């Protein structure tokens, strides 16, 4: 919408209220215009903080560096994690960064202010990642001894681009880190507000704020729900009328801290969270079935998992990537180009799996009738039905149900099945021996009927009142969970687990957890009989289905020409 459109619209929407000159409406008028004044000014970003250091740096050399498009960047925010510093960057034409190798060659700059003359130290960045349409993520190592904590960025070589604004270093312990529009509400993800597992908090303890920076919140609204560090906020009127203008607006919450003499102090939680909304066209029909998953370094297994489940009827994939470095991005891009509708979302926030699932549920809500929350080593299997489209048919059957909001399926845990090395033809064909009794279950939910708090525990969401779950019988469907794979895979997976509920598989505190391999100590040493463990019944059901129907999927990375998907 151009600004003349905007003005016309604004006129129209204001007309009816002309007759009411209450103080309230005057205030409303004022904040409304103030807000749009700022919004329109914002359309021409100013990069006056950007400094091109002397030397060979001229704007034309920057031009060359960034392959034809003038790219300038600005550090928006910094977050201090226990083992690295996360930098959020925005800039003009920042999308062209991939042309220069995803910013490889960038250095994190630390300054030494302990010595007389200022000394600088450059250390290669840990990673650069595309974050959203407007920002990039750069990870820097913690500051070296005797150096100040970053940090600016500079590209290696002749050209130096630096940002001299020192934005506050945010602590990860206390931070609003994501914000997303959901209908006429905004959902803000906040670390460090009281967190009770599986219990809602009183939303009246919080207030929501919107604006352009941590000292610049110009709009406020009511908190509607608060649970698990997720606060749902009413949208201020001006944003409700023009949701497209909310993109990039910073959001946070405040709360009252009791002081002496019945006084309270208002505490604003620092924020790096900028509102985003899904760009989905309202008129497009929804997919019947989508999948949300969170993963780390599973480039090798994702193709088998996605092609198989697409054959079962999954139409769209939201992959939340926790800092993978195994080239999964290119595997995902390739699958997407092949028509599988796969998108990757960088999720750099540590130990926030529940929040990530809530975030994904909101993203999927506009596009999907049903969403499955599952892991890359889990495969639905229909023992008594032709598999093609079966999962989609199953869920479609309940899409207009007045009471069913979740379908639960039991999981069978498979063992190493005698193998010593990862199966060449994929897990569904390679692993065929499992424990007899099913363990746990996984859910497919209707995002429309989730509880507004978005509360969820280990893959299970609370449903809105009046809705409940249905157990899918084991004769209809089960999930083959390739949980205990050959040692090298198992070890890697449990060493760096994406889930929150097991901090570290070596951590003896969690020894009793059901997620630990029974009988395995806390040492990362292969038990002598590992390959024979967890094997009570041979089960070649899914293997046979895959070999009969998807044989040409099996050689990894090959394009699946023959399958009708
Ligand atoms: C170094 O700089 C930081 C931030 O600018 C400051 O907080 C600190 O006190 C300084 N240290 C010394 C020794 O001057
Ligand atoms: C840090 O500074 C102190 C005091 O100047 C010095 O004694 C120490 O060796 C320095 N450490 C390193 C790692 O440079
Ligand atoms: C991908 O999405 C489009 C519509 O958005 C749909 O027509 C197509 O069938 C989907 N692909 C798969 C494999 O389901
Ligand atoms: C991502 O991986 C790190 C380990 O590097 C882990 O600490 C963190 O909890 C993971 N993120 C999520 C959302 O689980
Ligand atoms: C669909 O649901 C109805 C009842 O709601 C049931 O009778 C029927 O068997 C279901 N079909 C499938 C394929 O699950």
UniProtKB/TrEMBL annotation:
It comes from Lactuca virosa. The chain crosses the membrane at residues 21-40. It is a single-pass membrane protein. One of its GO terms (cellular component) is membrane. GO terms for molecular function: glycosyltransferase activity. Its EC number is 2.4.1.-. This is Glycosyltransferase family 92 protein. Signal peptide: none annotated. Belongs to the glycosyltransferase 92 family. InterPro entries: Glyco_transf_92. Keywords: Glycosyltransferase, Membrane, Transferase, Transmembrane, Transmembrane helix. Its main location: membrane. It is found in: Membrane. It is an enzyme of class 2 (transferase). Pfam families: Glyco_transf_92 (PF01697). PANTHER family: GLYCOSYLTRANSFERASE FAMILY 92 PROTEIN (PTHR21461), GLYCOSYLTRANSFERASE FAMILY 92 PROTEIN RCOM_0530710 (PTHR21461:SF16).
């Amino acid at each position: 919408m151009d600004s003349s459109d905007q003005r016309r619209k604004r006129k129209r929407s204001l007309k009816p209220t002309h007759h009411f000159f209450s103080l309230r409406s005057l205030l409303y008028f004022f904040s409304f215009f103030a807000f749009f004044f700022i919004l329109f000014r914002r359309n021409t970003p100013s990069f006056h903080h950007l400094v091109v250091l002397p030397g060979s740096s001229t704007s034309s050399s920057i031009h060359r560096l960034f392959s034809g498009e003038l790219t300038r960047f600005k550090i928006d925010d910094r977050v201090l994690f226990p083992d690295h510093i996360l930098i959020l960057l925005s800039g003009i034409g920042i999308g062209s960064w991939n042309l220069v190798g995803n910013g490889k060659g960038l250095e994190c700059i630390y300054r030494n202010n302990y010595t007389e003359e200022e000394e600088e130290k450059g250390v290669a960045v840990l990673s650069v990642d595309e974050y959203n349409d407007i920002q990039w993520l750069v990870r820097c190592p913690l500051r070296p001894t005797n150096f100040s904590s970053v940090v600016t960025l500079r590209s290696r070589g002749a050209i130096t681009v630096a940002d001299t604004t020192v934005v506050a270093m945010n602590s990860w312990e206390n931070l609003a880190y994501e914000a997303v529009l959901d209908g006429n509400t905004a959902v803000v993800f906040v670390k460090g507000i009281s967190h009770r597992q599986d219990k809602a908090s009183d939303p009246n303890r919080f207030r929501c704020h919107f604006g352009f920076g941590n000292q610049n919140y110009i709009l406020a609204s009511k908190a509607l729900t608060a649970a698990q560090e997720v606060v749902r906020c009413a949208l201020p009127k001006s944003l409700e009328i023009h949701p497209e203008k909310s993109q990039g607006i910073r959001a946070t919450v405040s709360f009252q801290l009791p002081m002496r003499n019945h006084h309270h102090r208002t505490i604003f939680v620092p924020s790096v969270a900028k509102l985003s909304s899904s760009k989905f066209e309202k008129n497009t029909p929804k997919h019947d079935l989508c999948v949300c998953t969170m993963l780390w370094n599973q480039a090798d297994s994702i193709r088998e998992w996605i092609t198989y489940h697409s054959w079962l009827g999954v139409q769209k994939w939201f992959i939340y990537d926790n800092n993978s470095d195994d080239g999964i991005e290119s595997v995902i891009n390739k699958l997407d180009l092949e028509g599988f509708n796969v998108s990757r979302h960088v999720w750099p926030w540590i130990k926030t799996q529940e929040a990530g699932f809530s975030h994904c549920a909101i993203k999927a809500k506009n596009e999907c009738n049903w969403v499955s929350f599952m892991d890359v080593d889990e495969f639905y299997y229909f023992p008594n039905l032709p598999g093609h489209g079966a999962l989609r048919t199953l869920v479609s059957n309940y899409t207009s149900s007045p009471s069913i909001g979740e379908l639960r399926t039991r999981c069978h845990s498979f063992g190493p099945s005698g193998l010593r090395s990862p199966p060449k033809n994929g897990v569904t064909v390679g692993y065929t021996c499992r424990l007899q009794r099913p363990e746990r279950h996984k859910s497919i939910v209707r995002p429309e009927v989730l509880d507004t708090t978005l509360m969820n525990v280990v893959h299970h969401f609370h449903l809105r009142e009046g809705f409940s779950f249905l157990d899918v019988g084991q004769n209809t469907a089960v999930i083959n969970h390739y949980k205990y794979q050959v040692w090298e895979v198992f070890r890697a997976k449990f060493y760096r687990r994406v889930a929150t509920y097991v901090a570290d598989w070596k951590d003896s505190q969690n020894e009793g957890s059901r997620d630990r391999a029974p009988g395995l100590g806390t040492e990362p040493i292969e038990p002598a009989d590992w390959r024979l463990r967890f094997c009570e019944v041979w089960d070649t059901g899914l293997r046979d289905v895959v070999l009969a129907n998807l044989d040409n999927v099996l050689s990894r990375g090959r394009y699946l020409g023959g399958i009708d998907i």
